[in-house]
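Forgive a beginner's question, but would it be possible to get any protein sequence you like and the C-alpha cells describing how it folds?
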Amino acid sequence: MSLLTDIQNAALDPKTSVSDLLRRCQILAVRLRHEPFKAWVGHELNGYPDSTELPSYRGPFQGELKANIVGVQGLWKNVSVPASNIPAEVRAEVHALRFFDGVAELVSMVEEATRAGEGYVGRRLPAELAAITPVWQGYNTIELSVVMSPTILSGILDQVRSKALEFALEIEAENPKAGDVAGPEPALPVARTNTIFQTAIWGGNVAVGPGAQVQVVQGDLASLMRFLESGGVEASDRRELEDAIEADGHRPGSRVRTWLGNLPFKAAASAGRIVEGAISAAVLHYFGLK
C-alpha cells in the first residue's frame, strides 16, 4: 500500500486517531521536502505558538461567559454572565475563543467534558478580570470562564482530517507514488506542491514556512508584502513590485509580468532564501488568479 493511500484510509477511518493520521503526514512532508506542510503537521500535533496566526478553523469562536460566585447564600456555580458586565475595552476579546492546542489535547478536552457530564469546554479568564466583573448584587465573582459546546472541538478535528485527506488526494492526482520514495529531488515541483497546500490546507490563502504561517489575502497588498518579506524578498524588490502593481492599475499588467519574469534570477542570487514558486503563487493569488 502506498503512503498516500495509507493517509487516505486513515483519514476516512474513525478508529484511526487524528494524531496517527498526522504522523503519516509527517513522513509525506519529509518525502515531499515541503516545509509549509511539515510546519502545519507539526503545529497540529504539538500545538501552535501564541504568536502564530491560526488557521481560520481554529477560531475565534464566540463563547458564553460563566462565573462561580460566592455571597450571602453561599456558592453558586456556572452562572451566566451578560456581556455588558465585562469592561468594554476587553469585551470582544474575552468572548473570542481560539484553540492553539495540539489535536491530542483537543481530544482529551472533549473526552473530559463527556466524562464529567458537562456540555461545554472553555478557558478560565484572569482572576483580576473576575474580581472586577459583577454578576449578582451582594456576591463576589471568584472565577470567570468563557465556554462553548465541545462539538466545536470535534469540528476542528474533523477539519484536520478533511484537509489531510484533500492534500493527499491532490498529491496523488499529480503523482501516485509521490510519497513512497525519498529521492534526491522532490517527487513534485515545489511550486505545484505549494499550490496544492495553499488550496487544501489554507483554503486558497498562501502560507510560507518553515514554522510560519503568513497569509496572502486576495486584493490585500499589505498581506502580499508581508509574505514577500518573510520569503526573503529584498525591500527594494518589494517596492519595485508595489510600484509595478500601482502602475498597472492593480492588475497583472506588463510591469508586474516583468517583475515575475525576473524571479528566476532573483531566486538564483538569493542563495536559497527565495522560493520562486511560492513567491509567484502568492502574487498570482493576490490578483485572484490562483
User: Anything to note?
Assistant: DSSP finds 13 helices and six strands in the chain. The chain has a mean pLDDT of 85. The longest strand covers residues 139-148. The beta strands are 61-62, 64-71, 74-80, 96-97, 121-124, 139-148.
